[in-house]
Structure formats: C-alpha cells, structure tokens
Design goal:
The structure holds two protein chains of two kinds.
Chain A (H helix, E strand, L loop, with lengths): L1 E5 L6 H13 L4 E4 L10 H10 L8 H8 L11 H17 L2 H8 L4 E4 L2 E4 L16 H9 L5 E4 L6 E5 L2 E7 L9 E7 L2 E5 L13 E7 L4 E7 L3 H10 L4 H9 L19
Parallel strand pairs in A: 1-2, 4-5, 5-9
Antiparallel strand pairs in A: 1-10, 3-4, 6-9, 7-8, 10-11
Chain B lengths: L19 E6 L5 H11 L4 E4 L8 H9 L4 E3 L4 H9 L3 E5 L10 H10 L2 E8 L6 H5 L2 E5 L9 E6 L4 E2 L1 H12 L5 E11 L4 E7 L6 E4 L15 E7 L3 H10 L4 H22 L1
Parallel strand pairs in B: 1-4, 1-5, 2-3, 2-4, 5-6, 8-9
Antiparallel strand pairs in B: 7-12, 9-10, 9-12, 10-11
Helix pairs in contact in B: 3-4, 6-7
Classes of the chains: A alpha/beta, B alpha/beta.
C-alpha cells in the first residue's frame, strides 16, 4: 500500500492543493500530515479546513501549538533577532485571521501517531520544536526512533527532506540498579535497522526552489520516494502581500528560502518535552 | 584591511607629477580601491576629500581606518584642504557617481591655480564617449558590466546602532539579492555587539560580498559614538522597507549592555589567566 506523508503547509493553500492532486496521481491510499498547517502563509483556515475535510490523520506542529497555547518560542526556533521579529509578526497575523473552530481543531491534534511499524511526528518524539537534522548524533537519532517503538519515523519541521538509515546499532549501557550495589552492570543489545524520513515542506520549502515537497512510502516494497511538486507559487506570493503579511515573506517563498526559522545546529536538543 | 577593487589595477601616467588627483566614475567601478592603491605609493603627506559624502561618509571612514595618517576633509573644509595642498600635501579627491562632474569645478580650478591637477576617470571598457571622457585628463578603462544609467541612491546613517550579526547576514543577503529593489551596489559600515565594526561591500556580478573588519578600537562601552551607515545603489529601491529591516536587526540597550558586560568580563578573565 502506498501512503503519502506531508508536513509544514504553513497556510499555503495553493501548494497544498497541488500536492493533493499529485498524491491522487500517485495513487496513494492514505495520507498522513505532520503538522504546521498554519503560520507565515496567507490561508491558515482554508488549509486546516481542507485537511480536516479529507480526514487526514495529522500530528500537531510547533506552529499549531503556538497558535493554541500562545507564542512560547524556545531557543530552537529562531536563528536571529530579525527572524524572531518576523516570526512574531506572522504569529500575530495568523492569530487574528484564524477561526476559533480552527484553533479547537489544532488544539486536539495528537503529538505522535503510530500505525503498525511507522510513527509520525512533527519535529521529534521529544518535542514539536526539536529539529532532527540529518547530521544529528547517531545515538540520539536512534534513541528518538526507539522511543516510538516504530521502525520508521516520519518527521518534518526542518523543511529540508531527507532519508536517514540507522544501521543495526549495537548499544552498550552501563546500568546502576541501586546505590547499595556498587557494581554497575553492563548490558548490551542490538537495535534493528531503523529509519528517519523527513518529508520536507509543502508550503515553505528551504531547498532553494519554491516547489512543494512530500513523501510517498510504499510499505510493500519499503520504498521511500521524495516528491517535488511545482505549483503556482506566484499566487501565494500575491496573496501574502494582498492579505497584509510582510512582502519579504513573498520574496523568500519565491526564492525557496525559509521565511524566518532555520535549523542549523545539529547538536542542539530541545529542552522542553512533549 | 586590504581593499579589493573592480579594476585591473589601473595605473596613471607619471608625467607631469600631479599634486591633485581627482577621480570619477560610475558606482562600484573601483574609485575608492584605486585611491587606496595610490596612497600606498605616495610618500608625501596625503589629504582626501569626498564631496557630498554628507552624513554617510562610508569611504572616508574606511580610508581613515586603513590609513590613519591621511588627513580627511569633509564638506565645508575646502579652505583647509587648499591650505594643505599649498603646503605640499598630495590631494586625492573622489567624486561620487551621483555628483554632477561640474560641481567640483570651482574647487579643482582653485587647486589647479597653484598645483598640477590631474582628472582621472574610471570608465567601463568599450565606452568611448561619455561625460567622463569629456571631463577627464586621463581615462582608464575597467571591466564593468553594470548598466550605470538612471541609478537611484538610498543611504542612511545609523551611528550608535549595534547589529545582531545573524540578522545582519540575512538582511545583507536580502538587500544584495534584490528583495528591496534591483541593487547594483551596496556598501556599509556596521557596528557589532562584540565591539568590532565591519565594512560590507557588494557589486552586482561579483561572486561574493566583501566582509572586512575595520581596524578600529573595540567599542565596548555603550552605544558607539563613531560613524556607521549604509549606501544602496540601484533601481526601484524600497528605502522604507530597508530602513525598517535595519531597525529590526539592531540590539536593544539592555541586550547590548548585557553582551558588552559579558565580553568585558571574559577579556578580564583572559588577562588574569595570562598574568
């Protein structure tokens, strides 16, 4: 069975529409969405309505959480003061333009979805805000997958798609069972092959082109296909300006650059848990 | 600091030896770089004047940092400049691309009355007829691919403002890649939180922007009281948006003092360890 996994739509309805049409052409039987339906883009409520109307299983993204809980950006979020200011403008705009029932829907989204040997999260199983970058330390990456009990972990959040295979790992742990027992016990076990699949971003790509990205996963062949979909991004750019968002968002979208947030420190781990 | 220029090392002829060198040319063609090269070759005292630099004296500030012995004059100090030349100094006068070449005539004619004046124009190679050709005593052709007609200039001082480096990096990329209009040339001096001042320089067609730390004392006590500012040259420039973005990149008083205290403490600890 083919499943489609998409993430980080960010209020870009044109991109979502194009991706859904492409998914249809790829004959995927099920769609999962990894959150960040809103934020930066001009049509947050329309995107949520579409995802909701198609009954797409969706995890909560960091932007979805912030719109519900109030902006609570941690140090994972913004690489610069300028980015933070732009993020705040986008947050306030989205907050003003989103319907109450949309917020309710976002608030009810789960943080992790499990299906068979697959797990779906926005950032990482630890936090919607944590970036699982391709260069993340192998042990930590393996721990994140193991914590879900799945073999393949689908995530988004970085907006740059990748597939990372974690070869069968041999883990050796020194375990102290109690203070009365001075000797530590060495335990050793083998972790089976695990995989992290980052599905990129539908509405705010960061790969230098404006095209939307998502992933098709065939669970019969265990094959992952990264899809890059062209769409009329100029329509979204025009809407960004018409609807009163900063014009620089339109320029950055057209260039395939991030609007404001960018992860570049693979060693940084989010300190707030789920 | 070493200033790179867009030229193929243009040289002037030696005869007759000029005491006043006036240089003109289009934006980003390498006038200031040419002047840097000349200063390095002159053993006599040098004075420099860039008319209408106004409250955005980017080139004079760079020159002062690189050549502390060069005396720099601003608008309104023309008489002192003339006096220095009469006393034997070599004068280098840089006419910005946006100035009417005739605007400096009165000063140049006054200087020429008692000194040998040479007017030099840096012009795009292949250009055979222009106001620079009519004006100059010597024309130096330079490889230059920009369309230099109908250029607009936007500039702003921001002395006292201190920039977050990551934000400045984003802003500079956006300015030079056309987010706020078609940019042919951009240059600026920016104070950073660690006390350093950087000169940033961009010319369309060149691969990368130049990022050069200026040879100035670290400023770690409050807001810098030395010049910083920006000049952008191009078409359809959205000055208001650039200005807003610049403001968004600047540190608040509280954050600036926090960083400065951290750096001072760190420097003090390093000194104690060294002692």
């Amino acid at each position: 069975m083919k499943i489609a996994v998409m993430s980080c739509i960010h209020g870009n309805y044109e991109a979502l529409d194009a991706v859904l049409r492409d998914i249809d052409q790829q004959k995927a039987e099920k769609i999962f969405c990894l959150g960040d339906l809103v934020g930066y883009g001009p049509f947050p409520s329309n995107v949520v309505e579409m995802v909701r109307s198609l009954d797409i299983p969706t995890t909560q993204g960091c932007w979805d959480e912030d719109i519900v809980e109030g902006l609570n950006s941690c140090e994972c979020s913004y690489p610069s003061m300028l980015a933070e200011k732009r993020g705040r403008i986008a947050h306030e705009w989205t907050n003003e333009h989103i319907y109450p029932e949309t917020k309710e829907y976002l608030a009810a989204l789960p943080k992790v979805i499990k299906e068979d040997n697959l797990a779906f999260v926005h950032g990482s199983p630890q936090s919607q805000h944590e970036y699982l970058l391709p260069e993340l330390d192998g042990f930590i990456a393996l721990e994140r997958v193991l914590s879900t009990g799945a073999d393949t972990l689908f995530c988004g959040h970085t907006h740059v798609p990748y597939v990372r295979t974690l070869d069968a790992g041999n883990l050796r742990l020194l375990v102290r069972t109690g203070v009365e027992v001075p000797e530590a016990e060495m335990r050793e076990f083998n972790a089976p092959l695990k995989r992290i699949v980052n599905v990129g971003s539908v509405g705010e790509p960061r790969h230098g082109r404006p095209n939307a990205t998502y992933v098709i996963y065939d669970n019969d062949s265990d094959r992952v296909t990264l899809r890059e979909v062209e769409y009329d991004y100029q329509k979204t750019c025009a809407a960004i300006i018409e609807r009163g968002l900063p014009p620089i968002f339109a320029w950055r979208l057209a260039k395939g650059l991030e609007f404001a947030e960018r992860a570049d420190d693979a060693s940084h781990l989010c300190e707030r848990g789920v | 600091m070493s200033m790179s220029i867009a030229t193929s090392t243009p040289q002037i002829s030696d005869d007759p030896p000029a005491q006043v060198l006036a240089i003109a040319g289009s934006a980003g063609i390498g006038k200031t770089g040419w002047i840097f090269q000349q200063i390095e070759q002159i053993s006599a005292p040098v004075v420099y004047f860039c008319p209408s630099a106004g409250n955005v004296p980017i080139d004079p500030t760079c020159l002062a940092a690189e050549f502390p012995n060069v005396q720099i004059f601003a608008d309104g100090q023309e008489l002192e400049l003339i006096e220095q030349v009469e006393q034997g100094a070599i004068a280098l006068i840089e006419l910005g691309f946006h100035l009417d070449l005739r605007s400096g005539n009165m000063l140049l004619e006054t200087l020429a009355a008692n000194s040998v004046l040479k007017k030099i124009a840096l012009v795009p190679s292949g250009l055979t007829n222009s106001e620079w050709h009519e004006w100059a005593d010597q024309v130096i052709e330079v490889k230059y691919d920009l369309d230099f007609y109908d250029l607009q200039i936007w500039r702003s001082p921001f002395t006292g403002q201190v920039f977050d480096p990551s934000s400045l990096n984003v802003l500079w990329y956006e300015i030079t890649q056309g987010a706020y209009g078609e940019v042919s040339r951009a240059k600026g001096i920016f104070d950073l939180f660690d006390g350093r001042a950087f000169y940033l320089d961009f010319v369309t067609g060149k691969e990368d922007s130049l990022y050069l730390p200026l040879d100035l004392p670290l400023w770690l006590d409050g807001r810098p009281e030395r010049f910083s500012g920006i000049e952008v040259v191009g078409r359809n420039l959205d000055g208001k948006a650039i200005a807003q973005c610049l403001i968004d990149c600047c540190l608040s008083e509280e954050i600036l003092l926090h960083y400065q205290n951290q750096i001072k403490q760190s420097r003090q600890q390093s000194r104690q360890v060294a002692a």
